[in-house]
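Quick one, probably user error.
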């Protein structure tokens, strides 16, 4: 397949902000892709050439990208840099110079998806001293082979890890469901669907000539209440009215039935169908963390194929996330009674995998940190005696002198350390506190209730002073929780967790299956999404940082303020301006005057005085006096504080409760 076709799809995706339309565009495209091309296409739509579980990354720095553009199109790096400052996007810069080059040389070659994918994989797999030159050669070879300028735009963006097509996981899930299953809509969503399709003139684009089966109840409802909209749809498509009972599972779950859309009444059937298709796609993704595997299974074997996908030890899955509550009563409200209560340890999270080849440790960003923690590997091997497993734990640093637990910032040095490991192992010993089990003895526990998982965890782990199971109790009583909370804080922990006893493990979701309560509610984890260069003694460094929270509904980062306090002037006294600037520079995706836009990557913990409503920032909130507390290099940007949490903290502030 020509890469040009994929570039056109990227372009269509970039031109709309509507999630429904994005899903439709991808769905139409992937349903027609050749058998052996599907995986590559899905990877490239996610902006990567690796599945989500892989630690491998493509992300080349903007600097190297400028050199590649220079080499491919014979333009000086200075010119490219100037153009970048004007256009604010290296993709557009590559596109512009590819046009000039094309006019000059009149070359026309065909760049294929396979060639792009293979070159990008080679780039990602390369490491070592001389790899930069070879990466440069491979990228410029690709840029030099484009026949359509938009190919250059998306190639450059893919290589620097910033595709800008606004395709979050939810959209891809809907697209896969739409491509390989009949599209099913029920009462509330049918009107929304027809409405947006007709209003935006999308019927003729996406829904013309489709086969639509309409449940008889819904047919009378639509004819009566939405006659105009429904009329347009009917005039453009083959609409057959049937009774739901007549639609078989095969009709619904196999594209080959020839039915494109089914409109159902809001009924148990509608919900069942919805959860069957979307639930299966989502579940398959949470188990594999690999959209290409999910798409292939959906295409080849439908629901049963999706259900066959399983967890694999050594392929990290996304960790389950927890919501925040301000009071114990609020927490009980969410997780139900009785609930499990646990210490909330202040360390960093590890997902520990064991296969027959040994132990592997992954951070919550899914980076493999096995080499950094030989002490954890040997302690876990000794104390967890079962076949393959995937366990969730918090690793806490221990003060060698007092034996007390150390706060997170001390132990974070161990995650970063790549040399003299044995020295730092002696300097900062750690203890492992297991709190959840995802697989034990090869058995998948994702759908097993938490109370059962906890029992299995307890019987799998032999506790000593290095390896433990999180301190845990079960209660419905607020004062018992209150005492437990005080006890936990007195031991130097961050707070407590309350957990729903019957809930499954939900990878990557912040569903309310677990709730954290901690005393410092004026601390947020925020993502740095931009920065301004400083002046005077801070010239050449960033002096102010644009902060954003995470909107878990849209998958977007919304700004909430700027920060310039809490950062040290001198290196060696804590996080300095110099250090932050160096850390952020590789993630610059746009430069305008003194400001840069950054790829959301670096997460920091921020304290503040108050949250106020604001029209200045896209979150609708602003922080008063934000101050940097520490870098949270164990967190993914999507682990940052969410918009919902911020509204909650805002509402809980004195006088607004
Ligand atoms: P937060 O980092 O504030 O979002 O809180 C959730 C984090 O607390 C988890 O990701 C774990 O790293 C950590 N944690 C510490 N103790 C526990 C526990 N008993 N159960 C779950 N998470 C825990």
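Nope, works fine. Designed sequence:
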């Amino acid at each position: 397949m020509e890469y040009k076709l994929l570039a056109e799809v990227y372009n269509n995706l970039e031109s709309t902000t509507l999630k429904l339309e994005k899903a439709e565009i991808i769905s139409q495209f992937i349903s027609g892709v050749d058998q052996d091309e599907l995986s590559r296409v899905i990877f490239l739509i996610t902006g990567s050439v690796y599945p989500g579980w892989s630690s491998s990354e493509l992300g080349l720095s903007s600097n190297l990208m400028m050199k590649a553009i220079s080499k491919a199109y014979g333009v000086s790096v200075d010119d490219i840099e100037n153009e970048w400052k004007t256009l604010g996007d290296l993709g557009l810069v590559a596109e512009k110079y590819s046009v000039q080059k094309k006019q000059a040389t009149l070359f026309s070659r065909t760049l294929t998806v396979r060639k792009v994918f293979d070159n990008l994989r080679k780039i990602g797999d390369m490491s070592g001293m001389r790899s930069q030159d070879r990466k440069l050669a491979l990228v410029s070879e690709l840029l030099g082979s484009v026949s359509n300028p938009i190919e250059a735009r998306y190639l450059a963006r893919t290589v620097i890890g910033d595709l800008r097509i606004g395709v979050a996981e939810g959209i891809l899930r809907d697209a896969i469901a739409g491509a390989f299953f009949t599209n099913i809509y029920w009462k509330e969503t049918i009107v929304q669907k027809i409405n947006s399709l007709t209003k935006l003139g999308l019927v003729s684009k996406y829904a013309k000539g489709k086969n639509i089966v309409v449940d008889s109840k819904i047919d009378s409802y639509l004819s009566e209440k939405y006659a105009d909209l429904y009329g347009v749809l009917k005039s453009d498509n083959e609409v057959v009215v049937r009774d739901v009972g007549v639609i078989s599972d095969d009709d619904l779950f196999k594209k080959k039935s020839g039915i494109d859309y089914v409109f159902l009444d809001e009924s148990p059937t509608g919900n069942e169908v919805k959860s069957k298709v979307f639930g299966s796609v989502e579940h398959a993704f949470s188990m594999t963390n690999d959209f290409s595997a999910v798409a292939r299974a959906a295409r080849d074997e439908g629901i049963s194929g999706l259900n066959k996908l399983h967890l694999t030890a050594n392929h990290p899955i996304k960790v389950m996330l927890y919501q925040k509550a301000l009071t114990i009563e609020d927490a009980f409200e969410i997780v139900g009674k009785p609930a499990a209560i646990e210490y909330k340890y202040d360390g960093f999270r590890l997902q520990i995998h064991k296969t027959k080849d040994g132990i592997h440790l992954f951070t919550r960003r899914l980076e493999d940190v096995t080499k950094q923690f030989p002490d954890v590997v040997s302690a876990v091997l000794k104390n967890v005696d079962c076949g393959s497993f995937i366990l969730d734990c918090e690793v806490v640093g221990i003060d060698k002198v007092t034996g007390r637990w150390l706060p997170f910032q001390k132990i974070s040095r161990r995650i970063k350390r790549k040399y003299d490991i044995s020295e730092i192992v002696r300097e900062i010993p750690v203890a492992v506190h297991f709190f959840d089990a995802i697989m034990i003895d090869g058995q998948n526990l994702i759908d097993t209730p938490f109370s059962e998982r906890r029992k299995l965890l307890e019987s799998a782990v032999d506790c000593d002073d290095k390896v433990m199971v999180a301190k845990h109790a079960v209660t419905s009583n607020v004062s018992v929780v209150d005492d437990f909370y005080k006890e936990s804080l007195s031991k130097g922990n961050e707070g407590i967790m309350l957990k729903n006893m019957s809930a499954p493990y939900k990878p990557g979701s912040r569903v309310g299956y677990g709730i954290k309560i901690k005393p410092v509610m004026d601390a947020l984890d925020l993502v740095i999404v931009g920065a301004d260069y400083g002046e005077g003694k801070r010239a050449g460094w960033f002096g102010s940082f644009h902060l954003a929270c995470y909107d878990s509904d849209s998958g977007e980062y919304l700004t909430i303020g700027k920060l310039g306090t809490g950062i040290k002037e001198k290196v060696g006294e804590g996080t300095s301006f110099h250090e932050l600037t160096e850390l952020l520079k590789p993630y610059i995706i746009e430069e305008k005057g003194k400001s840069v836009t950054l790829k959301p990557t670096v997460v920091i913990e921020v304290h503040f005085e108050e949250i106020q409503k604001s029209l200045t920032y896209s979150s609708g909130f602003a922080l008063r006096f934000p101050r940097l507390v520490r870098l949270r290099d164990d967190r993914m940007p999507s682990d940052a504080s969410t918009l919902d949490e911020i509204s909650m903290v805002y509402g809980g502030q004195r006088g607004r409760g």
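Residues 227 and 408 are 61 Å apart (CA to CA).
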